[in-house]
Specification:
This protein has about 350 residues and is an alpha/beta fold. The chain is about 30% helix and about 15% strand. The strands form 2 sheets. The chain has a 7-stranded mixed beta sheet with strand order 3-4-7-8-9-10-11. Strands 1-2-6-5 form a 4-stranded mixed beta sheet.
């Protein structure tokens, strides 16, 4: 495996060495929650990563304490990154998890550097920082504490309900800096969830987490992603999902149609041929021009979701508005908070 060039973005030919093979410890645990998963524990040399200039993402810096993800979402765009380590982008991505065990101490050191200007840091943008591995390695409390102590703005996107464990830390951070939290819920269809997101908490449990965060003063948006063509995009499905998001108290809802980048595309299409063979031709035509669905389709889904959001009283979200946890007895700040990713 090509550990010497491990990074959170595609490696260039001049990519710096982050750690060598002598820094890797491989562990397996024969317990029900981790059975079949191998952890590669590494000591990274860098943890704050610059997003490539060509990226569509509206942020410049990320922190990703893990690579690979036991959520096993068949559509995950990050699958391709496993190939940079000569690891399999299918089952290997789901079961070979790289853990940067020194992430909290490394982040604290980098935030204290004179060169760091306090830019926003996005997390959960590559793989989920609250996947099952986090229950064992507990990297996020140290990461959030470092960001809190340096009053550094950050955002988290997750499908994991484990974020509730860190509720107190998130509240403390929100008192001193801008904090954006978003939970990903693309649909509420139980049968669809079980086949395309087999390692994740159910959509209802994720919405329960949204409700809990909101009730404790942490405004939480929902990234309605992915909207899956022909499987999760019927009007009644969109209505049910937006209704459930509204009932959970989400501050905003932002739809994102399924996109199929190399690595994810092959794995998703193999899943489609097995579970929905009659849809293969329709997908090949819809995604014939690249990773993204046609613009007309994306606009249609966005319009439908926004209309439903208006009907159910969600949003719209305000970009860039810092939020603070109010003092006891003080009125809450008006207006929603949105993850910078969106």
């Amino acid at each position: 495996m090509r550990w010497d060039h491990l990074g959170d973005e595609p490696a260039a030919t001049t990519a710096p060495v982050l750690f060598g093979t002598d820094a890797v410890t491989t562990r397996t645990f024969d317990t029900p929650e981790f059975r079949g998963i191998t952890f590669h524990e590494v000591r990274a040399r860098s943890i704050v990563n610059r997003v490539p200039g060509a990226s569509r993402m509206p942020f410049e810096w990320t922190v990703n304490p893990y690579r690979g993800c036991s959520h096993a979402c068949v559509y995950c765009f990050a699958r391709k990154t496993h190939s940079y380590l000569d690891l399999d982008t299918g089952l290997g991505f789901d079961s070979q998890i790289v853990v940067k065990i020194n992430a909290p101490e490394l982040l604290r050191r980098q935030l204290a550097s004179r060169r760091w200007q306090g830019a926003h840091i996005a997390m959960g943008t590559n793989v989920d920082c609250y996947q099952r591995a986090e229950g064992r390695y507990r990297l996020m409390p140290g990461i959030i504490a470092a960001l809190r102590d340096h009053a550094n703005p950050f955002s988290i996107l997750t499908k994991g309900t484990l974020i509730l464990r860190d509720l107190d830390l998130l509240r403390q951070a929100a008192e001193v800096t801008e904090v954006g939290i978003s939970v990903s819920v693309g649909f509420t269809d139980q049968s669809l969830w079980r086949t395309v997101e087999p390692g994740t908490p159910s959509p209802q449990r994720r919405l329960d987490a949204v409700r809990t965060l909101t009730e404790h003063g942490i405004g939480c948006g929902v990234l309605m992603a992915p909207v899956i063509p022909f499987l999760g995009d019927r009007p009644e499905q969109l209505r049910e999902t937006v209704r459930a998001i509204a009932e959970a108290g989400a501050t905003s809802v932002t739809p994102l149609v399924l996109h199929l980048r190399p690595g994810a595309r092959e794995w998703f299409m193999a899943w489609l041929r097995e579970h929905h063979p009659l849809l293969v031709g329709r997908y090949e035509r819809m995604y014939a021009d690249g990773a993204y669905a046609p613009t007309w389709y994306q606009r249609r889904i966005t319009r439908q979701v926004h209309e439903l959001a208006d009907e159910f009283g969600i949003g719209p979200a305000r970009r860039g508005a810092a939020r603070r946890i109010p003092e006891p007895g003080a009125p809450a700040l008006a207006g929603p908070t949105q993850l910078t990713l969106l």
